[in-house]
Amino acid sequence: MDIDNIKVNLARVLKNQNTLTFVLVIVLIVAIYFVYSGLVNQAVQPVSLPYSTALLKEKTEITNDVISMVKVSGSFLAVSDDGIIQNKGQLMEKYVNIGYQIPPNSFFYKDAVTTLENTNKTGFEDMPDDYTAFSLDVDFDKTYGCSIMPGNYIDIFLKTRIDDKLVYDLFIKSIRVEQVVDKDGNNVFTYTDDDDQPQPKYLRFTVPTEYKELLEMAIMIPEVELYPVPRNAGYSENPENTTLASESLREYIISKTKPIVD
Fold this sequence. Notes:
The protein has 262 residues and is of the alpha+beta class. It has three domains: 3-44; 50-68 and 82-116, no CATH class; 131-256, no CATH class. It is built from seven helices and eleven strands. The model has no long low-confidence stretch (mean pLDDT 84).
């Protein structure tokens, strides 16, 4: 075969606009076909995912006997993959994260799974050196129907009587809630539908040590009540520093308590 003739014929084809367009359309159709076929095969190709066969509460070890596998289509995973763990091996020697529970027949999500070391954290490990933990005694109503959650920023109002007049005023503002627990110290947000209504007993948070001492003195005064007050989402998303809101309330508390003299 004459190479020069092939080159001449190819050059003529390429110079013909109609022929060139036809060739490009054929190439494009073939390319689309292979891409589409690959996507379809990927979508219908079954994928095996681990799921929980039992209710797993926070700090529970995820063991082999509570894990089963189910096949789902690739298209499901593409739509629903917002942190689903796809490999059973990733669950070995792992635990349910604090503040989470995994219902039966539910997939395992990365945020809900952690290590044993992390389940032993209290939330107070990273507080500043000049801060101290405090537990505020509450109930279902004081938490607005258990609507105050860990991570929320709240204010604390103080209610009392001064000179026979009722006083209800902002005391300390912008406090981050670390835990909401029942009388046994269990996280109330891990209750299931089969459990009784959550009964919050304590809000746990950290405040500057000076304010913690004021709070401790306040709860010893019989006529004083402290109320946590939640704010909107923006208050928690853009928190301010924890500050004392009322100097007069500080003076009132100090006046009602007797300092220990060395």
